[in-house]
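Example record

The entry below shows one chain as it appears in the dataset: sequence first, then structure tokens.
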Amino acid sequence: MKRTIPAIAAHIALLVALICCVGLLGNTENTEGVSKFNGELEHNVTLRILENDTAVKQGYLGELLAAFNKQYASYGIKAVDANMDQYTDLANDGPFGYGPDVLYQANDALMKYVDNRHIMPLPTESIDCFDTVGEKSWQAYTRNVEGTDYVFGVPVNVQGPLLYYRKDMLPQNWQTDWDDDGDGICDIVQYWTDMYRYSKQLKQGNEVTADGAKKFGYMRSFLEPYFSVGYLYSYGGYTFGNNNTDPKDIGHSAGESYKGAWVVRQLASVMDERCIDDSVTVTAYSALASGEYFATVTTPDVYTLFVTEMKNRGYSDEYIEENLVTANLPLLPASGDLEDESKGWVESRMMGGIQGYAISSYTKAPNAALAFVNFATSYEMILRRNELLGIVPARTDVASAVGGLSAIINSNLGEGNIVVMPSISEVAQIWTPLQTFFQDLAKDPFRTDGYKYDTVNKIKQKLVEVDEQIYSAIFTLA
């Protein structure tokens, strides 16, 4: 049964209950923030809320602020849009009073603020969503301080790459020629080998859109390591050891990760040179809507951006719902060769993240800020966030209610097929070496002066160099 938004009295009772949790959390030097939650709501205060750009553009933040402000109007508590870049630097802005009171970002971005106490540990066990969020989501915001685990953020949604494709662009003969396993689902969207073959066919063909643009199959920029490093994970690679907590153990070259790099190189070959930079990323919404791209991979929370582009082209809601499809990532060939299915299949493992709320240590209204976080992560508001933004809720009760991919992605997270980004500050050093490598790798099929990654040994050697660069950036250059 759908819950109703909690009454003010329930929120006040929650905040009073937090006093007990504060005692359990302690008050060490590194976690003194918990002492600020004394259960007494501050009156006549304004909270600055930093949300992501999509939530702002699609109107969700406006709805959230209006609902919260109505609920707390009698206390003079008002939440407003912080009106600053979604990637604002709290470490520099907060001490001077320019930062937000509440921040919404991915776990890697928020948890970097733990080291110098820019965000506060939270008494999370009394927050409404505590028992409905999975353990792995909470782990993304947990840090051990002097032998005790503290939680510094409240999970909102699970980010894990999804396949987006146009069902109406499938080959007309797919039921006879592209369904070898006979399960009634086109193999193109189930196996990377078939996606590769179909994309190669389109690239070599002469099909164009109504706008005269050449049609492509799968298109994705390899500039962003977030969407590329999972190919390494799928074959035994990893970022940091000990569940992404040990930066001394760097493993992008571990296992048979070179196979994943070879997959990337092959996929790039059926695209064009736009896959080398961010051209595909910025055009994906309009290009899928126009039929220029058959498929791409991106996160669940941008679904509405694809819908908007298709509506702009005159497609009805019914047509979009039927033909704009999101699905789990296809299976990879165990061989690592997109032209060799003989050795069976492996699950696609991809990097993911847990986006959530944290509270600035510099806020002058911690109890009101905590009330906002509790309100924003309530069943109703997370359900509404799903409706407007297409997110995958971290709340398993909402995920079960909406079903479909929300339930599947939460399952993938639990099974380890979504590898959550490290929540330690050292993760900042992985992006540039990985980006440089994947960009260079994607460029390889288009080189006219000799390939750099046309053998397994060349790829293996480069992956070792990438790990060494990351290690040096963390420990030597620092």
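Notes for this example: Confidence is low (pLDDT under 50) at residues 1-31. The first helix runs from residue 8 to 25.
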